[in-house]
Amino acid sequence: MAGIGRWGARGAVLALGALWWWAVLRLAVAPGAGVLEATVAAGGWGLSVLPVHCVPKGRASGAVGTGRWRRVLGAGGRGVVTRRG
């Protein structure tokens, strides 16, 4: 049953992607394109900028601690580590 669900999800993603490309191409090429195509294209673009891979700062690997930049900038350049050749 897991295979059916996986292919169903893939099919839905492919269908929605095809619908989005149809709307974008129709907006670019067809002189009669209107509100429906614009809505589909804008909705797809909006989903593409949705930050779905964000995690809380405390769980992110390599996250900079809170207040670090404030401490560095507040020091006026003192204590800033520089590389010397």
How can the largest sheet be summarized? none
What fraction of the residues are assigned to beta strands by DSSP?
under 5%
Rounded Rg: 24 Å
Individual helix count? 3
Mean pLDDT: 76
Instruction: Please provide the ordered H/E string of secondary-structure elements.
Output: HHH
Shape: elongated
Structural category is mainly alpha
Percent range of helical residues = 55-70%
What is the total tally of β strands? 0
The stretches of 5 or more residues where confidence is low (pLDDT under 50) are none
| Cα end-to-end separation | 61 Å
Commentary on this structure:
The chain is an all-alpha fold. 58% of the residues lie in helices and 0% in strands. Helix 1 (2-29) packs across helix 2 (35-48). It starts with a helix and ends in an 11-residue tail after the last helix. 2% of the residues are buried. The mean pLDDT is 76.
Descriptive labels:
single chain; 85 residues; mainly alpha; 3 helices
Question: How do the strands and helices of this protein lay out in sequence?
Answer:
Layout: H1 2-29, H2 35-48, H3 68-74
Briefly, what is this?
The chain is mainly alpha-helical. The protein has helices at residues 2-29, 35-48, 68-74.
